[in-house]
Design brief:
Shape: elongated
Helix content: 25-40%
Strand order of the largest sheet: 1-2-3-4-5
Number of strands: 5
Number of helices: 2
Order of helices and strands: HEEEHEE
Distance between the termini: 82 Å
Oligomer: single chain
């Protein structure tokens, strides 16, 4: 049985490259939704910053001095740090548009608590003052409803 003419060289695509072009993928709006991931992330970040601003204002109205916002260290971040005398309050702010996927307080996992506590004590070490007490609060913003949980952990 004859196979016909078989070329000695392997088949190559036309052009400079020896590889075929892969399948091209484009994100297409499905069902009329055209929110990109970047737009959603930007919205969430804006909501978080707005909530942090409201929490900082609440502490200032209640006699605290806000000494740090968005203080970062390797492996952790503190949203709002306020001071009243020798009391340092580290407040973690959780913001949600609604409770459809759980409450904002439920987002405080054991791992998140560990990170906030570690960062809070690192912040205290940087202050290098003796006699300071620390309290860890959680503030939740659901929609426009602000709620505080003092000495949460």
């Amino acid at each position: 049985m004859g196979m016909g003419h078989v070329p000695k060289d392997p088949l190559h695509p036309v052009g400079a490259s020896t590889e075929f072009q892969g399948r091209q993928r484009r994100r297409v709006a499905v069902g009329g939704h055209h929110h990109s991931r970047r737009a959603v992330a930007a919205q969430r970040l804006a909501r978080a910053r707005w909530a942090e601003q409201k929490v900082a204002q609440w502490y200032e109205r209640n006699g605290y001095e806000v000494v740090a916002r968005n203080w970062t260290m390797r492996g952790g971040e503190l949203d709002v740090v306020a001071r009243k005398g020798s009391l340092i309050v580290v407040c973690e702010v959780k913001a949600r548009a609604n409770d459809n996927f759980g409450t904002a307080l439920e987002a405080m996992t054991e791992q998140k608590i560990f990170r906030v506590r570690r960062a809070g004590f690192a912040f205290l070490r940087e202050l290098s003052e003796s006699g300071l007490r620390v309290r860890f609060d959680v503030a939740t913003m659901t929609g426009v409803q602000l709620e505080f949980f003092h000495d949460a952990f």
